Structure formats: structure tokens, C-alpha cells
Amino acid sequence: MRVGLFIPCYIDQFYPQVGIATLQLLEKFGVEVSYPEKQTCCGQPLANSGYEHLTQPINNCFVENFTGFDYVVSPSGSCVLHIKEHLYGTDKVDETRQIKENVYELVEFLTDVLKIEDLTASFPYKVGLHQSCHGQRGLRLASMSELNEAPFSKPETLLKMVKGLNLIELKRKDECCGFGGTFCVTEEAVSFKMGKDRVKDHTDHDAEYITAADMSCLMHMEGILKRANSKVKVIHIAEILNAG
């Protein structure tokens, strides 16, 4: 199994430890991982801002970098969903289709492809799980409270394998944090209020850490926590699953 590691630009620039944890975690399970060094942004910020018609060079770059792998894996649900739904108009149709069919967010790769049932990780803290919208509603990493369906959560399943971790119960476990990519720039007041409410649900239940499968959501909440001088920290789920 050969995996191409896709690291989103904001993780590369601000949270490189998340990329390292993802690499180490995959290698722990015997996966052969390669990191294409010429990879760039997936183009999601452009598409979110109404400029998707300008993303063809970015799409071609992505296909050029990730052709030939059995799977493409990334620690970001939003970027993976963008590739699945918006990677088109490239010069290589067959290669593009193969990538879209085999690109996975890290959590779903661990649960659906590797089918992990045991972890050696240890993280003895009270943790709140934020179910990011793209992962939950786009990739179906977890059930949605507005639907009449049996509850499930792939991130929660993995976290419950971590020794010593105390997963707290939230009042509104699938509520948006308000980040929304460029939404937090164009509608900053609404974005901040949504993030403040989301953080409060975690702090009201004495969380020591907030985790998620999307570092972008955590980055948004981290800013709110820091401005409130809160001791609560954010941590990507890859770091927890790789801890200890």
C-alpha cells in the first residue's frame, strides 16, 4: 500500500506537528508513505471565494503530484471533500478520477481502509470532540442530529481506544464552530459569535483539550480561547492518536 501524504497549506505553515503526527501514525501501521514536495494548496480558498474557474492550474498541480499512489491521505476533512467534489478540468482525466475515488481524510482512512481496532496511544486528559462540518456532513464521519439515524462517530470510535482519555459529553455535539474558511473573514462578527458559543460548550464541561479532524476549525477556536486567556488547548486528533 503506497500512500501520498497531502498536507494542507495552513498545517504546513502553522501546525507542522500535525503533519508529522499523521506521518508517524500511518507508519506505525505499516503504511508506505511519501510526501510529494511540490504539492501546493488544493484550491479551496479560491473556490470558496467564487473563483473556482481559476483553479485549473492548481488542479493540474495536484494531479501531477498525487498520481500513482494507491491512496491519498490528509489530516483535513474540508480539503479532502474539496478534492472529492471539485477536482476537475485537469489535463489527465483518468488520473483525476482515480485520485478522487481514493482520497481519504485520516480518520476515515484509519477506520474504513486500515480498519484499526487497537491503539497504543495514551492521553490522560479530559477532551472535547468537535465534529467539523465538512467531515461530518460531507464525508459522513459522524451521524447528524437533524437526521433520524443511528448515532455513530468515527473520530469518537478512535478516541475511545486511547488509554486514559476522558471524552466529555457536549450539549450540542455537531454544531458548527463558525470558521467556514473565508466566511470568518467576510462575516467575522457572526463567525466569532458562533466560535465563542462552540468553545463555551467545551469549557462548560471542563474540557482540558478540544480536538477535531480539521485543524482549521481548531485554529479558529484557538484564537478565541487565547483572547479569553483560557487554559484550554486545541490539539488535532492525529496528535492524540499518536501520543505516548
Automatic annotation (TrEMBL):
<dbReference type="InterPro" id="IPR004017">
    <property type="entry name" value="Cys_rich_dom"/>
</dbReference>
<protein>
    <submittedName>
        <fullName>(Fe-S)-binding protein</fullName>
    </submittedName>
</protein>
<feature type="domain" description="Cysteine-rich">
    <location>
        <begin position="3"/>
        <end position="84"/>
    </location>
</feature>
<feature type="domain" description="Cysteine-rich">
    <location>
        <begin position="127"/>
        <end position="221"/>
    </location>
</feature>
<dbReference type="Pfam" id="PF02754">
    <property type="entry name" value="CCG"/>
</dbReference>
